[in-house]
Amino acid sequence: MFKSLTRIVHVSPPLIGRLTVGSIVKNGMMRQSLWASFLINKRFGSDISNLKKESDKNEVDDSSSTTGVVDLSSSEILMYYDHIYSSTISKYRIKQYLAMLLPGKSHEELKAKVKALSTSEENPLPEEATILEFIPVRRDGGAFVKYQVPPGMTKKELTKIIVDNMKFHKITFDQNLFKRYYNQLVHTYPKCYEVKGTPWIEDLQRFPSSILSVKFEGSALTEEELYMLFRRYGRIIDIEPGSPSTIKFRYLRAAICAKNCITGISLDGGKTTLHLQYQPDLKVNKIGEFISNHQRIAIPIILAIIAGVAVLIFDPIRQFFIEEKIAHRFSLSTYRNNRYFKFIMAPILQVEKVFFSGYDYIGEKLNSECQKDVISNESDLDDDSSIEGDNLWNERYEKIKQLKLWILENVGTFIIINGPKGAGKKELVIDNTLMEDENLRKKILYLDVDAMVKSRSETKLIENVASQLGYFPVFGWLNSMSQFIDLGVQSFTGQKSGLSESKETQIKNMFTLASQAIKSVALSEYDSYKAEVMKKRTRQEHRLRANPDLDIKLEEVMKEDEYLQQHPEVKPIVVINKFSSKADNHDFIYKMISDWSASLIQSNLGHVVFITNDIGSLSHLNQALPNQVFKVLSLNDANEKGSYNYVMNQLKDLTRYEKFDSSLISKCLKPLGGRMLDLQSFIRRVRSGESPQEALDELVNQAVEQITNFFLHNSTTKDDTNFKNWSPTEVWELIKFLSNSDSISFNELTSKSSLFKNDNSSLEVLSSLEKNDLITLKREKGVIHHITTGRPIYKAAFKNIIEDEEIFRGFESNFLSNLISVETTKLKKYEAELSSVDFVQLNIKNRMKYLIDGIEASNEKIIGYEAKVKELKTKKKEEPFWKIV
Q1: Contact 614, 579 (CB under 8 A)
Q2: CA-based angle 604:606:611, to the nearest 5?
Q3: What is the pLDDT of residue 592?
Q4: Alpha-carbon span 767 to 786, nearest angstrom
Q5: In what order do the strands lie in the sheet with 783-789?
Q6: Where are the alpha helices (DSSP H) in 745-792?
Q7: Bridge partners of 81?
Q8: Which of 196-205, 379-388, 708-717, 722-731 has the highest mean pLDDT?
Q9: Three-state secondary structure call for residue 368
Q10: Following DSSP, what letter does each residue of 415-481 receive, concatenated?
Q11: Are 607 and 567 in contact (CB under 8 A)?
């Protein structure tokens, strides 16, 4: 009891009377001891002050910024002002770094501010009470101020004047209602406290916290004593007594003031000294704790929240981007006819024309002399050779009109455009039909299926499908991450979270959202239509009220389905290019697209146009719409006259072709066979400066290089994704057959060739070669009837390969060697059976004769093949090599 009372005496003298009256009456010795302890503490300073005095005897710089301790004489007081700066509670707080960029107040300005707050007109601060030292503590947001105590005034009186003036200014500040509540909420107004201990002014990276750790040098204080000592600085939430003790304040500023004012205070005659430090507030994450303790409940809730956020935030954004890809509302091409846009783009287009037309100009000048032999007579082109501006030719112009009619008649607009590769199907649909119509061009969604199915991984597949649909944003990397998350959840809970979805599900969701976007675009003008009808109906109702005898039928607002049926031009047109029956990777895409497009037709939301060169792709469409009659438009190669007219129509603006030899142009176009892709390549080459013959030769050489590199060099393996299931010898034999004839029947091929038989393996090889555009299989009633070249120019390429001596020698030798290997295998098989069976004993003479005849036939073929190989090596160069076979 005596010990506790002694501590209290030194902390709060006014409390002595209330706590020690009973004790003094009971025991006079106790009273004497209390006063003795008080006098000892007044006489001797703290240990840190004495240590500083001893260590600073010979030091030049003994300031607080160097030593961390403030010297204080008997005629000086030390006050702490809080909230002079904004406090820094962490080294990662961005605010403190932004504050460095702004000009701060100097020490003199802050001193003037502190002095202004410490005085008032009613209770002025004496002039002798000067500020001796101003020590900012920017990390804590405050400052220590040392005052000179005027003569005739005690420290307590000066302290009271300063504290009262601070309270007065706060009352004046709080007169504004907004400032009062703002100050109570944020605690922005400065406060002032007397420093009772010996503060340690340090600049360590120990950032303020609302929790203080109190270490005792001597005996520890009780909980009641700690509360009495620290409560004046702010509300205390909790006290944990002990050694060390922990005090938790409600506000951070209270902890800062207590730490700076109490640190270093000595009690019990110097036997107990308090050392205070900030203790980090380790906050418990209640959400994380709930998740870790209740996984079966928390994880489904989290997944539901994530799904809800995705639907509420990302889906509208993605739908907007899909609509933008369909309608092109923010595309520059939409405003190309605007006069202001033309005015801005005119200089840019002029610069582009200079750069990109320079090569044509140079080519025309360089080849002007070389073309004199080509330019001869006047053009014998008919007057109708200019076929509707830039349209292809009369035959295709009729198909363009038919396609547009099908779209606008709005009856089961499920249209299929088929034809060989390079026939210009895409150009006919997009460039010559849709883009030429002012209404149809505004709502087109173009999908390239090849770009989807050729993706190497699931992540790339999702990104490519999203790119084709305009689906943005897409987080492809989450696909792989979700699999690991799902595995982790399954290990914790014993069941899958469902976070990871299959690629089929993700792509199906993309197409579902695309359907919503298509519907939104189709009905974008429906509200304005309703408003217009309602205005018209209102006018009609007014007329009927004025004259009830009028025979007027009130206008009715059509429902959405009726509106779409009556206005086919508002529905978007989905163009699906390169649709096929199967693919090496991601084969499910074809069925998904066919089902999705069928749903658009059944819901009457859009027109669907399929562009394909694979007849087998119709099987997917028949399954999706079994009762639908498709509108099929077949696009074949142009005839000779049509090709000629089209080429000359494209070249008519070139000055060097004002006069030309029409027979030369016709001769060069004949090997191209009217294939649109080759005709356009021919036109580009001629426009760049090449002569017609040079352009044809280059196209043939390109085709030869493609055939030899891709078809005649089987460099892939079965493990490769681009595995070629044909052999070079099979391709070589087809090249020889088709080099001198337009086509060969399937029966003729199987009868003449020892490599092709009427079996599944041969059909598989031929189908693969057709898929890669080397040949075209003509079918009748679903059965292969004739075989032709994949592109007309391939016939010229085949002939070029056969007539080339070195190429023929190499491939023919390899071909004969393979035939020798085939016959050798047959011969060994016959010999093995003949030697293993006793035909005389079994009396099977017919089988024995069959084997002997087979051996003789194979042997004769081997002898013939070896003779041809020898002849190839010895044949003279001037003799045609293709005459050997």
Answers
A1: yes
A2: 125
A3: 93
A4: 13
A5: 743-745, 783-789, 775-780
A6: 746-752, 760-771
A7: 143, 192
A8: 196-205
A9: coil
A10: EEEE--TTS-HHIIIIIIIITTSTTGGGSEEEEEHHHHHT-SSHHHHHHHHHHHHT--S--THHHHH
A11: no
For 164, 174, 286, 313, 318, the CA distances from 171, given in Å and listed in that order, are 11, 5, 40, 49, 56
Distance of CA 842 to the CA centre of its chain: 77
Q: Going by DSSP bridges, is the β-strand pair 131-137/76-81 parallel, antiparallel, or unpaired?
A: unpaired
Q: How far is CA 106 from CA 84, 85, 98, 111, in A?
A: 12, 12, 18, 9
pLDDT in tens, 315-352: 999 999 999 999 988 877 666 667 777 778 778 777 77
Other CB atoms within a 10 A radius of the CB of residue 21 amount to 11
The span from the CA of 158 to the CA of 270, in Å, is 26
Q: Is 144 helix (H, G, I), strand (E, B) or coil?
A: strand
How far apart CA 1 and CA 9 sit, in angstroms, is 12
**How far is 297 from 282, CA to CA, in rounded Å?**
26
Long-range contacts of 294-303 (CB under 8 A, 24+ apart): 295/492, 295/493, 296/493, 299/489, 299/492, 299/493, 299/497, 300/497, 303/497, 303/498, 303/499
Residues 6+ apart with CB under 8 A from 144: 64, 70, 78, 79, 80, 133, 134, 135, 137, 195, 199, 201, 260
Q: Which string of DSSP letters, residue by residue, matches 216-269?
A: EESSPPPHHHHHHHHGGGS-EEEEE-SSSEEEEESSHHHHHHHHHHHTT-EETT
Give the N- to C-terminal CA distance of the chain in Å, as an integer.
Answer: 127
* Four-residue CA torsion sign, 756, 761, 766, 772: negative
Three-state SS annotation for 31-72: HHHHHHHHHHHHHCCCHHHHHHHHHCCCCCCCCHHHHCCCCC
Per-residue HEC secondary structure of 484-509 comes to: HHHHHHHHHHCCCCCCCCCHHHHHHH
Q: Is the pLDDT of residue 475 over 70?
A: yes
d(CA 833, CA 823): 16
**Alpha carbons 517 and 520: distance in angstroms, whole number:** 5
What does DSSP assign to residue 334? Answer: G
pLDDT, tens digit (0-9, with 9 covering 90-100), for 698-728: 999 999 999 999 999 864 444 444 457 899 9
| Better-predicted residue by pLDDT, 532 or 49 | 532
- Quote the pTM value: 0.63
Integer Cα distance of 526 and 99 in angstroms: 55
Phi, psi (degrees; rounded to nearest 5) at 89: -95, -5
